[in-house]
Known about the structure:
mainly beta, Neuraminidase, 2 helices, 3% helix, 49% strand
Amino acid sequence: xxxxxxxxxxxxxxxxxxxxxxxxxxxxxxxxxxxxxxxxxxxxxxxxxxxxxxxxxxxxxxxxxxxxxxxxxxxxxxxxxxxxxxxxxxxxxxxxxxxxxxxxxxxxxxxxxxxxxxxxxxxxxxxxxxxxxxxxxxxxxxxxxxxxxxxxxxxxxxxxxxxxxxxxxxxxxxxxxxxxxxxxxxxxxxxxxxxxxxxxxxxxxxxxxxxxxxxxxxxxxxxxxxxxxxxxxxxxxxxxxxxxxxxxxxxxxxxxxxxxxxxxxxxxxxxxxxxxxxxxxxxxxxxxxxxxxxxxxxxxxxxxxxxxxxx
Length: 311
């Protein structure tokens, strides 16, 4: 996972107060799916903002856009996991210790609220989604083949309700607003799940995409989800390279409808689609929000905003 430096220098005007873009297409609007379907590997994405987040961000995981607010899940590591010499009770590592957070920001990058989620060794939030009423947040043990709790978070009151539990690591969820089902992915997104809103499993299949590991997805309208991901590739000099990309998937059958690479990098050298990503449409503009860097690396976590003209 890695390399390359941020290619764009921002103008001072874009960093001044009030320069943050206003909320655009409402959640569930088909405009996001339609706009993304027009992108290609030649689409020009311009970085229009880079906002340092001046509070502890830990290891960001997922984004959900709720009006003028950005909900960002993040895991705070108190004790890292350690690999076992041999598997123990079906696990390849210790559970570690940590705290799961959903950090609520305004679009200028100010922290408005911090919601703590999880219990015991279940502390790792994943990719999150807003279904028009609740923010859906999976929190799992920080190891594969483990267990998870899927929560519903009220974006107005910040009240948290447990929706259901899963006997696996759930790395991200999306709610199908038309069909009502909840879709999720396992560790490394190798398995795709479908549950009812109360947690009854109604589908499970292998991920057909072996190029990217999905990190974060959001409902994009028209019964689709728009997912971001990453894979680590070796380089000839013995190093590594992070390949990032975006893909549109049909929630009804899991088909990949459209897929493009995203060759942009952060201050710490991470591909922009490494972790939290969300997109919206504002007229002819397709806007992408990302926060690829951890709080303890590079320049710290920065909210990066890119725009492409697709209309």
